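A quick aside before the break. I want you to see a complete sequence-to-structure record at least once, exactly as it would be stored in a machine-readable document. Don't worry about memorizing anything.
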Amino acid sequence: MIERTDPVRKDVKIFMEDLKSIPAVEEVTLTSGIPGRIMNHNGYLPEDSKTSEPLLFATFAVDQDYAKTMGVKIIDGRFFSRDYPSDSAAIVINESAARYLGYTNPVGKRLIQPGEEKDRVSLSIIGVIKDFHYESLHKPVNPMVLFMNRDYYDGYITVRLGAGNHQNTLEQINQSWKKFSMEAPIQYFFFDQEFDKLYKSEFQTRRLLTVFSGLAIFIAVLGLFGLVSFMAERRTREIGLRKVLGASIGRIVILLSKDVTYLVLISTVLASVTIIFTADKWLQQFAYRIGISPWIIIGGSLIAIFIAWLTVSYQAIKAATKNPADSLRFE
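That is the input. The structure line, written in tokens, reads:
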């Protein structure tokens, strides 16, 4: 994404054609706004509206190459085309806008931009695009209107790159920019990085949870280690007698692990209930969210039990393999 195109404003069409000549550049488009950033909202009135209160729609200007550059799917009608000069008075809406307006066949309908009588503009709907997220997943996809970027005013140039050495391509783009603007350096960013900013708090939360989860597991393992050591120490004479009477190492390990296993299972059940409640509460902030799969809970529980068993078994085996004579002499 190239932003602040005003330095090349008068030559923006030529600049875009020059960009298309770069081998790794697949598509180029100019828009007044981009998904992930604040968008303008304009008021529109359906031609057959019985009210004078305009409906607000997210609105931004695009050129004829927007759909193929951004991979936007046309589900009804068509997109803007250089073959139709009349598209300067046309608009394309998304599915949400069609539903909001109550149109089952929106192509051919007209929306009015309200204003003074002489300033009112009647815009014909020529196509409907599939809904796409132009804001974060915290919000639903709202009604949107696209209109033709007639004057090529300041905005964003989106460049879609193919596979290859992007560093080399960026240098070629920079050289192309310098042909048209020596004063102002090019300013660009990658679309995925910009969209990641919408989820900055989620990334921070993930990092914090990773750190504190690791710390919690470490403390829990130390606690289990100490608990089993204490239990083994307290039952030293019993372990020695059982070995003398023929108890196997496996039986002694099970004996020492049994009580701790019950505690771990109870803790796992309580933790699972807490996780389900907390995760569901957190997911409610997203308009579009996944369900909580039981396999996530089951998998996490099995991992927790496995780690606990490793810790307990190590100490239990250590206690069970001691010489019973030493254990009885100690007592």
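Two observations worth writing down. The mean pLDDT is 82. Residues 200-330 form one domain. We'll return to this after the break.
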